[in-house]
Amino acid sequence: MDINDMKQMIEEKLQHTYLDKYIKKPKIDEEKLLILTAIINNTNLPDIKKKQYIITTMLVQIALDTHDLVSNTNGSDGKKPKQLTVLAGDYYSGLYYFLLSEIEDFRMIEILASAIKEINEYKMKIYYREPQSIHEFFRNVKKVESTLVLYVADFLQQAKMKNISEEWLFVNKLIQEKNQVRAVGFSPLFEDWLHEAPKENYNSLLFKVETIIQEKIVDMKNYFSNGTLSRSSFTIFTTPLVKDILTKETSAVEEG
Amino acid sequence: MKLAKTYGYLKKDLDQIEEALNKVIQAEHPVLREASTQLLRAGGKRIRPVFVLLTGQLGNYDLERIKTVAVSLELIHMASLVHDDVIDDADLRRGKPTVKHIYDNRVAMYTGDYIFASALEHIASIKIPNTHRVLSKAMVELVVGEIEQIKDKYNWDQNLRNYLRRIKRKTALLIATSCKLGAITAELPENQANRLYQYGYYIGMSYQIIDDILDFTSTVKELGKPSGNDLLQGNVTLPVLFAMQNESFNSFVKETFTNPEKVNHNDMNTLIEMLKKTDAIKNSYHVSNLYLKKALKALEPLPDSKAKHTLQDIAKFIGNRRS
What InterPro entries has UniProt attached to this entry (chain B) (predicted)? Predict the structure, then answer.
């Protein structure tokens, strides 16, 4: 299953002339797509089914990500983009249900719906700034990032892939947020924690984030080398994209 | 007479649906749980579950299965309302504060997504392929309809066809789907299920047209929101389309909405009064009645039963609705 082909197929499903005119094209989380493809490729499902599972799971992810963009205020260009962002998320959710209904896959409809429910529970915990410690905060972030993929892995009986997928998605999120802070000096996600920890600032938080990234990368490299994963699932983690991130992050942390 | 009286004998089953609705959306997070049940507590006619029950009674009525479908449909409707209040920036719904107003947009988004997922998780236990095909298609169409509505906002030159297509997707589709899903779940033959879909579609069209009329003729207390709110939001409804045929209304509305942000209470009152002086309300009721007649006609070939009579009574009630 080629990642670029999958990405193109997802983009085709997302296409909507009017939405495309007023709101940004939804971002396809390539790392999530990679992990998901790795998990699904490790099954004996027919190719057509594999594609359908990847597309529908990614549609759910994109729907959730899109709704995260709905702010509490109108932007400078009025209320229309906000209104259409709400509807875009609903549209992608509807598509996931529609596509799985077409192939009469009731169990997958249920799996993805259960994951959506659980993710929203974790999102609420973060939004209401409930974590009492930074570890708890990161635990919730990890759950939001990985629950969808873990539900699919469970459903497809790919338990061996769960741990590495969870860690990889978590590290990836931390890298994304860290890069955002470096670029614009701000991360809405980190703000949720900083608001509750007055002694913390971006410098001290980023230091902790870097440390976690470094630890997790070492863990993952060990995981790859101990042969827990099958050859086919390992292949996905050696794609240029993943290798590039692993190398860059390792050297960035080493350079301090 | 109240609408609920026409189907009073369904109370026991409707109570069970109410109980199931409440049970299905019990989130673990206290705010998510509170927000999810907020709209449920505000009440409502539960018209979609009523249609599922009634059309289900025309066939092999298995309450557990029918209940699952009815609950899921109502939850999908509720999820869309929670998100609609973000879209419309609405503080009140059914006279009660909205989730968006009590909490904020973000919580409303999470709540809507949670309710929607609860609905799908719930209905996944129904293993009838057609149920999911019909429902999922309707859901996508429903959103497309809402996107169209935003596209058509403040477009004073749109035609009747635009309006009818919009209200079909906005209202009629989910009512038609409710009727068809009740029929499919009760294993009615396809031709009967399609007739019931038609009935629901026509009833939905008529219902929405009357809703659009009431937006101008009802009081704030009756509506739970200000009169003329649809127009204020830029929604060109049937009464407005008819009124636009009057030259002075036409030019006044276009002039008033040159800058929609600046339209005030007095402007709205003037517009409402001007509209009422045209034939717009009378003509709109006429169109609504045409749909009602079609709804009743769709029912005619179905075998006689108590449920069929109730569906007929509901159609008549909707036709006479004035508040």
Answer: GerC3_HepT, Isoprenoid_synthase_dom_sf, Polyprenyl_synt, Polyprenyl_synt_CS
Q: What average pLDDT score do residues B216-226 get?
A: 77
Range of the domain at B199: 3-319
Distance separating alpha carbons of residues A111 and B120, to the nearest angstrom? 10
Q: Which range has the worst mean pLDDT, B37-41, B73-77, B249-253, B292-296?
A: B37-41
How many separate domains does chain B show? 1
Residue pLDDT, tens place only, B89-98: 989 887 789 9
Is residue A101 within 8 Å of residue B133, measured between CB atoms?
yes
Q: Given pLDDT bands bounded at 50, 70 and 90, which one contains residue B233?
A: confident
Q: How many residues does chain A have?
A: 256
What does the buried/exposed string (b/e) look like for A53-75 if buried means 16 or more CB atoms within 10 Å of the residue's CB?
A: bbbbbbbbbbbbbbbbbbeeeee
Q: Which helix (H) or strand (E) holds A220?
A: helix A202-225
pLDDT at A254: 52
Q: How many residues does chain B have?
A: 323
Show residues of chain B in contact with A83, CB under 8 Å: 86-87, 150
CB A67 within 8 A of CB B113: yes
- Among A96, A37, A97, smallest CA distance to A62 is for A96
CATH number, domain with residue B309: 1.10.600.10
| Chain A residues with CB within 8 Å of chain B CB | 16, 18-19, 63-64, 67-68, 70-72, 79-80, 82-84, 86-87, 89-91, 93-95, 97-98, 100-102, 104, 106-107, 109-110, 112-114, 116-117, 120-121, 123-125, 127-128
